[in-house]
Amino acid sequence: MSSKQAYIDFILEQLQNGSVSFERVFELFLTKFNAARPTFAKYWKLANEQHSQQREAIEKAKQAITITQEIEAVKTQIKTKEQILERLNEIINQEHKVIGGEVVLPSFSDINKAIDTYCKIQGYHASTKQELSIDANIKHDSLIERIKLSN
User: Fold this and answer.
1) CB atoms within 10 A of CB 43
2) Among residues 18, 11, 22, which one has the least CA distance to residue 50?
3) What is the DSSP track for 43-86?
């Protein structure tokens, strides 16, 4: 390893250990290397640039991991239509669950709500489309006569 790279590696090590003061790192640098202040200043700048790039890369990687974890958490919380219908069927069919060592059955109210929700999801409550036709050629006088007759 060249002395230049050794200088940069030493300064990077100090930066990673939390020594960010130019003067403090320069004092430590002088105990290990025989170099002038301008030489140290040049390598201090290069090491700081490398350190910033490393920190930026680390932060981007952390952010990517965090985003991936949050996306997965959301995906596991969102239920598909099939999963919801499956759970509603379990309630409707009065399948028991074991919670804390106790067998729990759905109540009558739970079953009715599950049936109602199941029907809504499946579209059984949807209104049917009715055809309506209006004869636009009805004359005004004949319309008034019809109204009078119906009263």
Assistant:
1) 22
2) 11
3) HHHHHHHHHHHHHHHHHHHHHHHHHHHHHHHHHHHSPPHHHHHH
Q: What is the pLDDT of residues 30-66, one digit of tens each?
A: 889 888 899 899 999 999 999 999 999 999 999 999 8
Task: Give the Cα separation of 23 and 30 in Å (integer).
Answer: 11
Contact 40, 8 (CB under 8 A): no
On whether the CB atoms of residues 139 and 131 are closer than 8 A, the answer is no
CA angle centred on 104, ends 102 and 110, rounded to 5°: 160
Q: Which amino acid is at 73?
A: A
Tell me, yes or no, if the pTM score tops 0.85: no
Using CA atoms, how far apart are residues 41 and 22, in angstroms rounded to an integer?
8
Exposure string for 15-39, b = 16+ CB within 10 A, e = fewer: beeeeeeeeebbeebeeeeeeeeee
